[in-house]
Amino acid sequence: MERLIVNLDKAPSKRWAFLKAYSKEINYLLKYYLNDLSDAGIFQQYIETYKTLYVAHDYMEEVRAIASYCDFSENEIVIANLYYDALKFVFGCTAFCVDQDKDRLHARNLDWWTEDNILGKYTKVFDVMKGGHLVCSLVSWPGFIGALSGVRKGAFSITLNAVMSHEAPQFAIPITFLIRDVLERVSTFETAVKILSETPIASDCLLLVVGCRKGENVVIERTPSRYAHRLSEDGSVIVTNEYLKLTNNKETKDPLQVTASERHQMVKALIDTSKPCTKETCFEILSNRKVKMDITVQQMVFHPKTGEIQLKI
Prior knowledge:
With 313 residues, the chain is of the alpha+beta class.
């Protein structure tokens, strides 16, 4: 998998200069995102206010630079980066961690409707550096500056799953930007969990956060204004696309929600049968026919202690 360096020592307008070589991919991805968001008129209507209130200055500088490398405007790139908050119902995902003393691993499938597997083919790992040292690594795509999945070496990893509640979306920080903020700026599992739990966010989500020590694993069930924590159960913690602590599930006929319980139960059964202790055994669970979906575009295993990422697409 191609790995690219985002250097935080550079000015925000220079951090993504390497993307000039990926303009074709950026254009293809942004066109796909924006076509899906064509009916999300609220973003076009309020984008100027939203940028001012909820998108950090450095991120806006990054967006302006990316706009110069592709055929889309600054506002269109910001809107595309709000994809999760506008269309979270198209995200599936299954993730789990087994709570053990050594080689604690965080495994995850990213399920996302896509055409021609573009999200799989264009996946990159962005290594975020500062002062010559690795800060964190993000599994993402060219033109997308937030994070759905990432790891901070020696501290924790975070993955995002979609869920739907009856609470209305809010004007607040996009969860994908908050995840990147935490990966870049926070050095402890406890502080990461606190910030991800208590910060008002734009829309519902489920977050699996896994640290380096036994007991450092939690599913944070979020709505824009509320949260609940789900801890290890019988030595494992599993998350798909349903609330299990918050009584907020908004019932839909979407296959991602319909299959959420079945995927959860299958992962639990597989873990109970044979505890996965290696990345290979984690991938075996992720690839089980009742866990992996036809729309799975990424499979990954994080090792928070070393910062290692194993990725299959």
